[in-house]
Amino acid sequence: xxxxxLPKPPKSxxxxxxxxxxxxxxxxxNASEVFDNEGxxxxxxxxxxxxPEADALELDGFLAGLRGSVGRFLMHxxxxxxxxxxxxxxxxxGYQDGxxxxxxxxxxxxxxxxxxxxxxxxxxxxxxxxxxxxxxxPAATGATTLRFESPMRRIPAHNSPVYFVRPAGVFxxxxxxxxxxxxxxxxxxxxxxxxxxxxxx
Length: 201
Prior knowledge:
Elements (H helix, E strand, L loop, with lengths): L11 E8 L2 E4 L6 E4 L4 E9 L2 E2 H13 L7 E4 L12 E3 L8 E5 L13 E4 L6 E5 L11 E6 L11 E3 L4 E6 L10 E3 L2 E11 L2
Antiparallel strand pairs: 1-4, 2-3, 4-15, 5-15, 6-13, 7-8, 7-12, 8-11, 9-10, 9-12, 10-11, 13-15, 14-15
């Protein structure tokens, strides 16, 4: 599965985890009621600026090949690429589900990653993007338990990789109108082009 082939890093990049919970307000007395539906999904909104037309056309061709929201691609948060977290962890044991995962192969004796940073469980079409809810402090053996949101949708196999650097998820375009047609042009340069997507599962 391909990454979204951006010609340059976006000027702005909003990556947001949206919980499935719903809040309802009673119009009669303003009382609130929350429906806690488990899980969440990621969405992104990026803006590309000052892109040469030739590069923009190439990206537009890729988007056309997706056929709107049908196709899927990998995408990561360009604001936080976490390039200093270049060790790959591996799932330790099978039959794990929920919002925690036992892993190994991390540098011991110090906090490796902090709550709020992202991880990618699995690779390719099986990749799942998560956000850590606790600091990662491996034991002397390099083993630890990752805690994150949202809960895993599939059970990863033993020894599946867990990435910390440029962690990506599987996305699709949020609608069928994400091409170059709405971009702003000036003198053969795309001055502003926004692309939005939502996690595909």
